[in-house]
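Page 37, continued from 36.
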């Protein structure tokens, strides 16, 4: 039982002391005082005893009164309110208010109307907080705001948000496309892992079929020295791209003779069903090093000038990534514990030692910048093809919920993350034991103190070349389940939901990017309604659309949400054929996720019921292909219905939902899953399975063509 004082402090800081999980039984969890005190400390306060709690509570209460302006005011266009704290004797001295747009540099004088005052005495000093409303018509975006008071000038950021996120007019009709895990793409020309040229070529395939969306897993840069750490959701930086997607033969510095003696290896990688990251990535890096020095040998070339312009445009963040990767490369095999175990002088990117290091390692730092330069160029080429072919949405990128704790992001800005802890998820219907992702989680107070710049930069980087953005685990805009690194029990940390939603909306408008939120799991009451009111599209999967919880009958398509991106499953779920035969149940037992054979047998029994429910739902909807009508009940999954993929795709695509995404794994009847959450690669080859059909053969593949026809029949 949490003491009353600690409860009050936790409430003030947004630390939940109890919660209900998303399991079928909605179990209640009460958080231990040790966990609560841990997070109190990590958020910058103390709760070691009652006296410390009192001091922390007082500090929180007085925090706003100890600065004239907040670091940022996130307001909506319709009601632009801000406040300023002055000494009471100075409250009549509010002078000129100046605004300068960060979008176009326009300067203007702020026009205000007074709303109310609030007074407080702190340590015998009288203060007044004056609240005002700006009456100027301001465009969506960010403004540097200066306020004069008592002869001094105070600065803040005004973030002006729209009422709703961007809406693509093309989405007034029913659209469709494909969910593509780019690394898994198999082609006759790639090197055993999908690349940006594959992505460009896949745009052409989609355009020929009338598909308007290509859903992508996160494309962000991963650990350079450990390419086997291949999860796209465990990034080193969400601001930049993964160089493994560079098509070597498309690099301007490439020469055919560079491949002398290497083609045999490449052919071996192409034949492999499993992506051989530990061989492919180093080979690409070795060649890219040659290309980099080739470019650097002619600093008068147009290509070098483009490189310089790119580096200048990306500025400090690119430099931090490149310095981090250079430092990490030197230390990763001799210093254990990541960047926090480095010599103290190198743990701060702004230290004199790091600046000196950068001066003496310019060549290697330049190489890491070159990787991003070329990756960015090739991604731009693929994006240009989207425009050339007229896809209505184009790329639908995925923004990971967090970043690796041992990452360039955390090294560059450690204070903005909650220390010694990582994001995860409590138990739910898919993962009854919960999940410990270990991803760095934003400290809500530090994030606001930095005027939300880290969030803004990440949103902006991932909206680049993007028609729509999927926010992974979108509930993190309101709350995130965080677990101490040295522990198993975590709790929810609350964020300023209104501010976070408005920042997303601003970036959505500025980048003409539709926003969708992945909200499977433990969804707070009223949360989905809040997303809808902000014009954030829902995500849904076949397996979640049930009448009563996860065990009920499948809903008919006409009851699916309209304003949503829908699909059969996701990258974390079993492909349809694997689900049908229950291979995923066996995998979970083998990996220890299912605790006993008895539980496994119960899962098989439940799956048999689910198979019959799915067949019943598809039968009722009348979407079976006429030349492949099912014959029998397929009890115990003894065979795979001949038209199952077509029927399931037709079933979901017939829903009124705005966008339907077909998964290539279902179309090509893959019976192995790409990712088994909660286990390492020693138990399951996560993120390594390649598709069974070459991209060049999609147009003539019977299953590909039949599924395309089935989907298009209902997407009109």
């Amino acid at each position: 039982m949490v003491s009353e004082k600690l409860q009050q402090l936790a409430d003030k800081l947004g630390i939940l002391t109890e919660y209900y999980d998303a399991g079928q039984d909605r179990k209640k969890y009460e958080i231990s005082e040790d966990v609560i005190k841990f997070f109190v400390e990590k958020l910058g306060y103390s709760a070691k005893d009652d006296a410390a709690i009192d001091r922390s509570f007082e500090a929180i209460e007085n925090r706003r009164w100890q600065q004239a302006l907040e670091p940022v005011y996130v307001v909506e266009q319709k009601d632009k309110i801000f406040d300023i704290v002055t000494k009471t004797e100075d409250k009549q001295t509010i002078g000129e208010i100046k605004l300068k747009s960060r979008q176009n540099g326009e300067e203007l004088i702020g026009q205000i109307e007074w709303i109310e005052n609030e007074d407080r005495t702190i340590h015998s000093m009288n203060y007044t907080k004056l609240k005002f409303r700006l009456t100027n018509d301001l465009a969506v975006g960010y403004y540097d705001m200066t306020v004069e008071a008592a002869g001094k000038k105070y600065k803040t950021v005004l973030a002006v948000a729209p009422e709703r996120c961007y809406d693509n007019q093309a989405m007034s009709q029913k659209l469709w496309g494909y969910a593509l895990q780019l690394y898994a793409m198999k082609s006759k020309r790639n090197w055993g892992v999908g690349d940006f040229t594959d992505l460009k070529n896949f745009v052409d395939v989609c355009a020929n079929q009338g598909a308007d969306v290509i859903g992508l897993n996160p494309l962000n840069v991963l650990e350079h020295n450990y390419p086997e750490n291949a999860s796209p959701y465990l990034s080193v930086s969400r601001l930049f791209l993964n160089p493994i997607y560079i098509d070597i033969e498309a690099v301007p510095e490439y020469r055919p003779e560079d491949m002398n003696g290497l083609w045999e290896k490449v052919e071996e990688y192409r034949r492999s069903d499993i992506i051989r990251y530990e061989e492919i990535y180093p080979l690409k890096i070795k060649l890219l090093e040659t290309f980099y020095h080739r470019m650097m040998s002619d600093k008068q070339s147009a290509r070098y000038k483009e490189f310089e312009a790119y580096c200048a445009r990306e500025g400090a963040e690119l430099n931090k990534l490149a310095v981090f990767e250079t430092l990490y490369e030197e230390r990763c095999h001799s210093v254990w514990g990541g960047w926090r175990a480095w010599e103290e002088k190198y743990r701060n990117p702004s230290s004199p030692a790091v600046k000196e290091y950068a001066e003496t390692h310019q060549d290697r730092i330049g190489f890491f910048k070159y990787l991003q330069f070329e990756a960015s160029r090739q991604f731009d080429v693929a994006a240009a093809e989207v425009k050339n072919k007229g896809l209505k949405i184009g790329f639908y990128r995925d923004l990971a919920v967090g970043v690796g704790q041992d990452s360039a992001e955390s090294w560059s800005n450690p204070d903005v993350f909650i220390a010694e802890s990582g994001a995860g998820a409590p138990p739910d219907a898919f993962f009854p034991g919960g999940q410990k992702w270990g991803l760095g989680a934003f400290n809500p107070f530090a994030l606001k103190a930095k005027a939300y710049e880290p969030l803004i930069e990440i949103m902006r980087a991932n909206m680049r070349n993007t028609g729509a953005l999927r926010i992974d685990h979108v509930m993190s805009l309101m709350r995130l389940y965080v677990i101490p690194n040295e522990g198993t029990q975590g709790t929810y940390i609350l964020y300023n939901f209104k501010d976070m939603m408005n920042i997303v909306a601003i970036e959505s408008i500025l980048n003409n990017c539709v926003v969708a939120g992945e909200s499977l799991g433990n969804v707070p009451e009223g949360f989905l309604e809040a997303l809808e009111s902000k014009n954030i599209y829902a995500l849904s999967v076949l397996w979640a659309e049930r009448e009563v919880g996860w065990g009920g009958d499948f809903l008919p398509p006409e009851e699916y949400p309209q304003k949503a991106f829908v699909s059969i499953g996701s990258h974390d779920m079993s492909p349809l054929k694997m689900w049908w035969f229950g291979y995923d149940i066996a995998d979970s037992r083998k990996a220890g996720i299912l605790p006993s054979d008895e539980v496994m047998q119960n899962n098989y029994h439940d799956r048999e019921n689910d198979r019959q429910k799915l067949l019943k739902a598809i039968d009722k909807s009348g979407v079976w292909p006429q030349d492949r009508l099912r014959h029998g009940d397929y009890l115990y999954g003894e065979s795979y219905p001949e038209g199952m993929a077509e029927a399931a795709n037709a079933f979901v695509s017939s829903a009124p939902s705005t966008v339907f995404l077909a998964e290539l794994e279902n179309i090509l009847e893959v019976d192995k899953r790409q990712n088994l959450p909660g286990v390492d690669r020693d138990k399951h080859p996560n993120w390594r399975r390649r598709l069974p059909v070459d991209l060049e053969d999609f147009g003539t593949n019977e299953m590909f063509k039949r599924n395309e026809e089935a989907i298009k029949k209902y997407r009109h």
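The chain has a mean pLDDT of 95. Flag for discussion at group meeting. The chain is about 35% helix and 20% strand.
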